[in-house]
Design brief:
disordered N terminus, four-stranded mixed β-sheet, six-stranded mixed β-sheet, alpha/beta, 20 helices
């Protein structure tokens, strides 16, 4: 009898096997989203044409500044622009003509080819928070970020199923000299994860370091022929392009690496308070930035970005998850598609100081508008707190878990034979239930999206297990994911070459903390 029971357990596994499957360490990454749902289009053709006309007027009559960048000014002059000092007046239609060489989509390669992403079309790629100087966790509160914090975020990103991209400056490690930290940050992305990542943009030479390190990781020829980085180039709104960012973009464009050309706008401070006025400025800045990218290297991959939020008119603080931000995000998506460019916008935006209800509401609004507006590359998709000043460990895993919702929303509604479920309706008939029918049994594993973090237990079980709120569940998930982290294999020779490059670079210059 005991032998028969053992055979049954070995044969089927039963509940124990299912529990083991649920609790096993998983380093699965979902494929980037391929939308099967329509984009939400808020502007009619008349409004779009008006905004496009006004943006061309801005470029021609008002112009844009390319500051401290004589090389860029000469490039514009050679292309037919009217250059007066540092002000570039771009004739109507010139920028639009120049961007025709930009690809509508491109593949960013990861060192693990299974993690490659295609940016553009109906696709959506999620990348984590970018840029905060502070971090927050339940144990240490709010503090300046360190390299150890940075590495923890990279590990959490690698362990997050619904996150497709490792990102870039997931936090700013202030314990490393400014002129050297980009080397350590890039190494972390290259070594601790095998997902695609971003390069440094804080100085043109650091962009070149990023290209050189990718040459070690992927091979120099591969880097020249393929895109292995997508990096963020912010525009100093209103209508100003600084030499540092443009210099970094020139390095990337000439090396066939993708750039996100993104106005950085707080409505009411850096752009008009109206939606149509802000969209006009966004489009003018994006046209000028993408056109310059193509002047550097026609055909280089480039994304039209739009980081836009509003301002609290009482305090001057930026606000997030607002209806105005949604209107602008939807409208900018339409404008990007009319230009045939991939689109970057939205994220886990919020102004809250803690991962609380305000953070959740504003983040949900911001993520949802990103999905519906047709965003192709979503930076800041998890971990953002306090208006972008803080990367939060707990919020990172909360957001990363919720990104699964958008994967399932984007699938749309299945109307095939299984989706119609007529066999189930016939089997159950009037007055029955569907729990035991064949269709339910065949589909129960994949029928509904289920959070891997949030609580669905009955009250009594929840109370017996400590009555944990979402913050407590997030603390546990951070600890679990870091404990289960397994570093992806990297050829020892490649790692040795990377470390030798970093050591040589660091030794070539004194530390600088500003």
């Amino acid at each position: 009898m005991a032998e028969a029971a053992a055979r049954r357990r070995a044969r089927g596994g039963g509940g124990a096997a299912r529990r083991a499957e649920r609790t096993a360490v998983s380093i699965e990454t979902a494929k980037y989203i391929e939308r099967k749902i329509p984009n939400y289009e808020i502007l009619n053709d008349e409004a779009l044409e008006m905004i496009e006309h006004n943006a061309e007027t801005v470029l021609e009559e008002i112009g844009v500044n390319f500051v401290e960048n004589p090389r860029a000014l000469q490039m514009w002059k050679d292309a037919g622009a009217d250059v007066q000092g540092e002000r570039v007046h771009i004739p109507r239609g010139l920028a639009r003509e120049l961007i025709k060489t930009a690809p509508s989509e491109y593949t960013q390669h990861a060192r693990n080819p299974e993690r490659n992403v295609v940016v553009g079309g109906n696709n959506l790629v999620f990348a984590p928070v970018y840029g905060p100087p502070f971090v927050r966790d339940s144990a240490g509160g709010r503090r300046y970020a360190t390299m150890a914090d940075f590495e923890k975020f990279v590990k959490l990103g690698y362990m997050s199923k619904w996150l497709h991209h490792s990102g870039g400056t997931v936090c700013e490690p202030t314990d490393i000299p400014v002129n050297k930290r980009h080397l350590d940050m890039l190494r972390a992305h290259m070594v601790l994860s095998d997902k695609p990542f971003m390069g440094s943009v804080t100085e043109p030479s650091r962009a070149q370091d990023s290209v050189d390190m990718c040459g070690i990781l992927f091979g120099k020829d591969f880097v020249q022929q393929n895109t292995v980085m997508t990096s963020l180039i912010n525009i100093n709104s209103p209508l100003t392009f600084d030499e540092v960012m443009m210099g970094a973009m020139e390095v990337y464009a000439k090396n066939n690496q993708a750039c996100i050309v993104s106005p950085f706008i707080v409505g009411g401070a850096m752009a008009p308070v109206t939606v149509a006025g802000t969209l006009t400025q966004v489009l003018a800045e994006a046209l000028a930035g993408v056109a310059f990218n193509q002047l550097c290297n026609p055909g280089a991959p480039v994304i039209m970005g739009a980081f836009v939020t509003s301002i609290d008119m009482n305090s001057g603080a930026p606000t997030f998850g607002t209806p105005e931000a949604a209107h602008i995000t939807y409208g900018a998506g339409q404008l990007a598609r009319r230009l045939g460019l991939p689109y970057r916008s939205a994220g886990s935006f919020n102004g809250s100081k803690l991962p609380d209800a305000q953070a959740a509401y504003e983040t949900a609004n911001s993520l949802n508008m990103g999905l519906l507006s047709g965003v192709n590359f979503m930076l800041h998709s998890c971990g953002w707190l306090e208006g972008g000043l803080v990367s939060s460990f707990e919020k990172f895993v909360m957001d990363a878990d919720q990104l699964g919702v958008y994967h399932h929303l984007a699938k749309g509604i299945y109307t095939d034979e299984n989706g119609q479920a007529m066999d189930a309706i016939r089997e159950v008939g009037p007055g029955g239930h569907y729990l035991g029918c064949a269709h339910t049994q065949a589909n129960f594993k994949s029928a509904f999206w289920r959070s891997e973090m949030l609580d669905y237990k009955p009250f009594e079980q929840w109370a017996d297990e400590g009555a944990q709120d979402t913050m407590a569940l997030a603390v546990t998930r951070v600890e679990k994911q870091l404990a289960n982290y397994q570093q992806p294999h990297l050829d020892p020779g490649v790692l040795e070459a990377l470390d030798a490059y970093i050591a040589e670079k660091k030794a070539s210059m004194p530390d600088a903390f500003s």
